Amino acid sequence: MNTAIELLDEATSQGIKLDVAGGTIKCKSNNPIPSAIVSKLRENKTAILRLLEGGKARTTNGNNHNWIEDHEDELQEAGFTDRDLYGLGWYRGLADFLLWNKPGLRVELRGDQLCFTWTNQTGKTITQTCRPEQP
């Protein structure tokens, strides 16, 4: 298993949100961030930056990034992590779903279930749902 991915999972599970700004890792949390995690982040900075920057780069096309950003707080309350939303490294997130390009796509959060609904070429209504990954 990749140490950087494990560390990102650990940080996310403790309510720490990680982002990249100017080549540095920015941490946000409602609680004090444990010094052990800060040390690990520093030790693995290059690999973590690569993962975070790679995940962000994949999410800049189409409606996906805007919709997810506009609903990020609600999605996180429903249990979706940054990894679920944006993916990390080899792991693909919701922002990578190809269905974001479907004409007339409607996206709705129902409890912990994200619903994607569109009408196909024959006029049939299609709904695809997903839930956060369970530990």
Structure description:
By secondary structure, the chain is of the alpha+beta class. The chain has 6 helices and 5 strands, in the order H-E-E-H-H-H-H-H-E-E-E. The chain has 2 domains: 1-57, no CATH class; 62-135, no CATH class. It has helices at residues 3-13, 35-43, 45-57, 64-70, 72-77, 82-86, and strands spanning 17-21, 24-28, 106-110, 113-119, 125-130.
Describe the structure concisely for a colleague.
The chain has 135 residues and is α+β, with helices and mostly antiparallel strands. 38% of the residues lie in helices and 21% in strands. Strands 3-4-5 form a three-stranded antiparallel beta sheet, with no helix packed on it. A two-stranded antiparallel ribbon has the order 1-2.
